[in-house]
Amino acid sequence: MKYLPALAAMCLLATAAAPALAAPKICGVFDEPAALSDYRKGRTEFAVRLAQVERSSFSPDVESGAIGMAAVSGLDATLAAFPNHVPALNALTRLALKEKRAKLPGMKFPVECYYDRAQRFAPDDAAVYAAYAAYLLGLGLNDKAVEMYVRAVELDGRNVVIHYNLGLAYFKLNNYELANKYAQRAYNAGFPLPGLRSLLQNAGKWRHMPDEKMPPPPLPEGAEPELAPAPEPLPAPAPVKE
Question: Which residues neighbour 145 within 8 Å (Cβ) at sequence distance 6 or greater?
Fold first, then answer.
């Protein structure tokens, strides 16, 4: 798409080589942090508030994009309450790419700012980095997308979808070795979609590696890793008869 390079040039507020305060100056500070809620706690601590926000602002038509630009007010309100509301971020990405705009009329900030704000609000939320990576891929910024997927893997190394998408991003960069590595991890863990495998096979770069596994789950805080049991001592040799 011809518009992508120009649109991409308007983005990367958070990842550009700029002073650390540049993104907050452009994307705003959190005036009332206590009024913000963590989407990851939307089934527990913030269940009531999430239900209220989604009922009023994030209808199925807003999420699907069925109402087009009429969705912007709902997306803005949802992300104002839950900055790391990943379904709303994904809906924003789809609408922005469809409309070929780095800033949607009616929204307070440029699209990328909502990802910057989500990362500042929840810097340990792997899903935010994965969602941002998908937006960057849509802009053709594959190297930056890889950076975000790598960060997501660091935060959630057991997420098979993130491993698969990181493999796709590496494939787009023609880094077939790493694309195959993450494909193997995903498929060995049971990921069902064949797309990445087909891409690698068609490129002659598919290498089955049954020993490539997902990282082990993290240890509970304060737990010590289990040591391998010491080998049993060999029986003493029988005395030599003279």
Answer: 133, 134, 136, 137, 169, 172
Q: Which of the four pLDDT bands, split at 50, 70 and 90, describes residue 219?
A: low
pTM of the full structure: 0.84
Structure-block tokens of residue 219:
């240890």
Measured on CA atoms in the order 124, 57, 53, 76, is the torsion positive or negative? positive
How do residues 38-80 score in pLDDT, each as one tens digit?
999 999 999 999 999 999 999 999 999 999 999 999 999 999 9
Phi/psi of residue 190, nearest 5 degrees: 95, 15
Residue 53 burial (10 A CB sphere; 0-12, 13-18, 19+): buried
Second CATH level (architecture) for the domain 143-215 = Alpha Horseshoe (1.25)
Residue 45 token pair: 């601590």
